[in-house]
Amino acid sequence: MAQGLVNSSIVTTTTGLPIHVEIVNIALMYWPLIMAGYPRLGPAFDSATEEIAATFPSLNVTQVYLKDSSTEGTFDDWLTYYNPEKTLAEYFFAAEKSGRTPPNITIFLMTGVVAENSLPTAQVSAELDTLLMTIVLCPVAEGIWPTWRTVTVLPIMTISRFYQVMLERFHWSHFTLIWDTTANNFFTMFADAAHNYLAKNSKSQMMYLNFNSQIYSAADYAHVMLKISEYSRVILYAGHSEPLQALMTAAAKLNMTNGEYVFIASLPFRHALFGTFQWKSPNQSSDNPFKCLLVIEPTPVPATEELTEMEHHWKQMSKEKYNLTYGQDEKLNPYTASAYNGMMVLAQVAEELRQSGSNLTNFSGRKVAAAFNNRTFHLKTGKLTFNADGEKIPDMSLTQTDPISGEIKV
Fold first, then answer.
1. How far apart are CA 352 and CA 105, in angstroms?
2. Which residues of the chain have pLDDT under 70?
3. Short-list 289, 365, 303, CA closest to 334
C-alpha cells in the first residue's frame, strides 16, 4: 500500500441518525452504440442501488434523472444542443425555491463523455459546492477541481506522469509527442493533457506534432517520420492502431526500427474502438517494425468468479430492461463497472460522513470530495485508489506484442 493511503472496506452499521443522499444523474445518453450510453450503464446503477439499500440501511438514497428535449434525436444533435450545466443549475435552483427540506448530501453524477460538457458542469458544481462524480471523463489538471471526483478507467494524468518517469529514468533529452486529430476523443484529450503536463514538468525537449490520418498518404507518413528522426529517438504516440501501423511502416523504411529508436503508444483499455495494438506477422522478429513498440495501458482486473457473475447479470439486465442485446462474444466495456464503482464508493463515503456525527444538515461538496483523498476502496469489482488530489490512480502495465506469435507480454 502506498504511503499515506488508507484502506477502506464496506462496513454495515446503523449507528447515528439516517440521512438523505440525493444523486442527480445528468448528461445521460440513450444511444445503445455509445460505450457510456445508459443501456450499458443502467444495469450497474440498478444493481448498486439494490446493494446500497441492503448494505447501508441508514442511507436514504434517491435518484433524479435530468433529461431535456435536446436529448431526443441523433447523437450529433445531443452534442450540438445539450447543455447539462444549464439543466443542472435550473434543477438546483428550482429545488431550492420549492421550500423542500434539502438532502443531507447532494451528488451530481455524470457519465461525462465529452469534455465540452463535463468541464462547464465541473465549474457549476464547484460554484454550488456540490460533489460531481464522473464515470468516463477525468480532470486533466491536478488539484484545481475541489468538488470533482471520478471513477473512470481513463488514466490521462497517470500516463502523462508515466511518460515523465520514463524520460527521467532513461535520460531521454528529446522526444516527440504525435497524435492523430481524427482519433477517438480520448486521444485528443490525452494528447492535450500530456503536452501541457510534460511542457510544465519535464526537463526534456519536446516536439509536438499532429496529423490527419484520413488524408495522409504513404508519402506524408514518410515525410513526418523523417522530420521526427532528425529531432529525437523517442516517439510518444496517441491515436488508433491503424495510423500507428502506417507510421511504423514508414519508420522501418527509414531504418528507424533497428533498436536505436523507441516508440511508445498509450491505451485507455483494450477495445476495438481504439484498434488492436496487437500485430502478428510471419516475418522474423528482427525484420518486424513492431519489435520496438511499447504500449502503456491499465492492468486488467482479474476475472474473479464474483465479477464474472456480476457481468453476466448486467448483460441480462441490459437485454430485459434496456432493450440492448450483447453479441455472443461481446464483452462489457469497463465503463459499466465504473458506474457500479461510482455508486458504491459514494455510498461508503456518505455512510462514513453520517457516522461522523458532524453537521448532518448539509455536507459541502468540498468535504465530501476530500473524503476520497489518499485512500483505497475495496469493492467486488476490484480496488480503487485515490491520491492526495482525489485523482483515481489505476495500476498500469508496460506491454509489448511478440510480432511472431501475437502474444501480449508485460
1. 12
2. 1-16, 27-33, 67-82, 112-117, 139-143, 278-287, 358-362, 403-408, 410
3. 303
- Listing DSSP states for 363-407 in one string gives --HHHHHHTTTTEEEEETTEEEEE-TTS-B---EEEEEE-TTT--
Sign of the Cα pseudo-torsion (333, 335, 338, 339, in order): negative
Instruction: Read off the pTM.
Output: 0.84
- Taken in order 267, 270, 274, 278, is the CA torsion positive or negative? positive
Q: Tell me which DSSP letter residue 100 carries.
A: P
Q: How far apart are CA 243 and CA 214, in angstroms?
A: 9
Cell numbers at residue 243, please?
495510423
The pLDDT tens digits of the residues spanning 275-334 come to: 777 666 555 555 677 778 899 988 888 888 898 999 999 999 999 998 888 888 888 888
> Distances in Å between the alpha carbon of 342 and those of 42, 68, 151?
12, 24, 6
343 grid coordinates: 455508486
Cα–Cα nearest to 156, from 122, 125, 184, 192: 192
User: What is the C-alpha to C-alpha distance for residues 44 and 24, in angstroms, rounded to an integer?
Assistant: 16
Contacts of residue 290, defined as CB under 8 A and 6 or more positions apart, other chains included, come to 248, 279, 281, 401, 403
Residue type, 220: D
